[in-house]
Design goal:
alpha+beta; Methylamine Dehydrogenase, Chain H; 2 domains; four-stranded antiparallel β-sheet
Amino acid sequence: MTPPVTDELMRALLRTRCAVLADVDRGEGAPERLLVRSDLSGTMQLYELAGGELTTLTSLPEPVAAARYLPRSRRAVLTIDEGGNERHQLYLLELDRPSPATPVRELDELVALTNDPRHVHRFAGASPDGALVAYVSNRGNGVDFDLWVCETATGTHRCVYAPGAWLQPGSGFSPDGVLVSVLAPGDRPLDTESVLVDVGSGRARAILEHPDEAALVDAPAWVDARTFYVSSNAGREFARVLRHELDGGECRALAGVGEHHDAAVVASEDGTRILTIENRDGASAMLLHDATGGGAGIEIAMPEPGVACSHAIPPPVLSRDGSIVYFTLSTPRLAGDVFAWHARDGRARRLTRSPTEVDGERLIGAEHASVQSFDGLRVPLLVYRPREQESRPPVVVLIHGGPESQSVLSFHPVVQGLSLAGYAVVVPNVRGSTGYGRRYAALDDTTRRLDAVRDLEAVHGFLGSAGLDATRAALWGGSYGGYMVLAGLAFQPDLWAAGVDIVGISNLVTFLEGTSPYRRAHREREYGSLEHDREFLSSASPLTHADRIRAPLMVIHGRNDPRVPVTEAEQLSRTLAGRGVRCELVVYEDEGHGLARLENRLDAYPRAVAFLDRALGRGTG
């Protein structure tokens, strides 16, 4: 049977463009101007939106990973790596150039704030006067990420704070420019300290310390120089929003938020309003509050259910006075565009309209479901059913990466392509996923890893009762999801008919040995350590049990992957080939951890769907 879709339809879905909000110019008296990242050219480049017009700022050989306005100037700070190696450098871009209609095409047209391709640099904020740019980097010893500042006028760098940990950027500078926010890992999985560092003295203080438990404390949303709101799940199951006073230490919860769902918070620059964003089973719900914390808040109406804040979508940004909420929205039928919601009329207007070749009405929405796993735990599922389907259609179970992540109500071209090809797609949030409480996220830590794999067995048991063909069920996943694909094929060989592994882990031991040194210590908190857990890591590795894999497998990897080395794919491919198991390996020389370039996605994903068609007996596509 030939599936009712062509390669060209899949390519049309992959050519669907998106736009993501990068920053808003909140300078006093500034006109409405936004920095937007968009893949109009095939990779994420930078644009400025002003007066309804989108101006192309960059057309660089490499994608722009992030961008922020530099306060009190017409400049922006850009974050860019090379070939997906994630060793990002920071650059200054002049926004009012002599030829503004001509985008920057080469890196040497930018001012390099950092220029050390051996190390990683992540933007951590700009001071209110624009004189300092803060960043975290492993330039000290190649492993630990310290807090640095660069004087934009002189290019002088100094290390401000070096605790010997993997610091991550927080929410930038306090309104008076004295403190910088960073996030520091605790000693346990899912454990984060929110730290404020004095840029002058280097003195640091943690807010909401929690020495007796693993908990997440997010970065502050500043109301003024001594007051902020912060999200944390310390002492409870879900992350609530707290108002914190630095001087008196007062801390009180914002009522009605974060009671049954994790909540995040951002603040307006003038400190009059805050916005809370709840994660309600993979969809965002936003409320605008008076910064005093009184009242229930105003619900932000969105065009349709979707995601306005996730691991892939930066949080919304408020206008200076908090009367406008700027946000990116992605839904199963909308790849991603930038919207502005106005308090004056309670309506959202769409600021960007990214091109698409497939009518959104043709795309498939998700059903919510759940299944009971081996120990009674309910595992949430998103189910995409093809409109024109066989009586019991074949199914692809698509597993997210992370593992500390979540599949959400957002656009996924592969999900839509598979659904339009006649496949049902089931997207589980197996144990270890975020968004369902602190306990749920910790259920796969270290030596409980295989409990998450056992959740896949429960998902397979759901398929028949849902009217799907469990005998033609394939696994698809990237990164940690790729590990889950391989583990499913190795530990449950009777259940799965095929697999597609993208930048996945085949051996937890060699993965930890080969991943970038700066990542190893961090990942060992989640997976277990080479020193203490090597035997378990080996036993939980799909490669150890490769003799049980018999389903055909397609493996996709990037040569420059700094997280999961390409050797993870190569060693698995060699092993399966030696046993006569069909394994198609495709390596992209100019990619890292995933496929960032459109031409590679256009090559890889139609090939993967054609592979599934053949493996499941659906013709050649």
